[in-house]
């Protein structure tokens, strides 16, 4: 296996992990999981699902890179950047369609797949560059800061359509209804 094959495989791993991460908080509700996994059906909480699926895939990649002796660099930085970029990229594709036609599961899944595909191309190019430990340190700090922000927004969401769970008519983690 080489890096190109790994990144191709990652598209499907992340897509599958999105289904798992979508339900983890529902299956095991607790404060820790509320930071990493969606706590409601808002668009924003689904961005947390995508972010966490990419981070989990980065952990899987670490073991696959070791097992198959794949030449790859900057894994942590690549994981952070792709997880971070996936949020605005998904929203850029999804929101105009959502505003035109509303909720559509097929469109959601296609948009998710397209987003994952493009961020994995970015990951491939980052991982082909020379190894840079400073970038990986930035990646670790970036992932930590991102989860702090995700946690804060879970417990203190702004009253914005992006954060509204339209099924429950609530914001955040069952804090208050509109």
Features of the shown structure:
mainly alpha, 3 strands, 73% helix, 178 residues
Low-pLDDT segments, ≥5 res: none
Physical arrangement of strands within the biggest beta sheet: 1-2-3
Structural class: mainly alpha
Strand elements, count: 3
Largest sheet, described in full? 3 strands, antiparallel
Distance between the termini: 51 Å
Helix content: over 70%
Order of helices and strands: HHHHHHEEE
Count of helical segments? 6
Overall description:
Helix 4 (75-101) packs antiparallel against helix 5 (105-128) and helix 4 (75-101) packs parallel to helix 6 (133-155). This protein is mainly alpha-helical and 178 residues long. The protein has one domain (3-177). It has a 3-stranded antiparallel beta sheet, with no helix packed on it. It is built from 6 helices and 3 strands, in the order H-H-H-H-H-H-E-E-E. Strand 2 (170-171) and strand 3 form a beta hairpin.
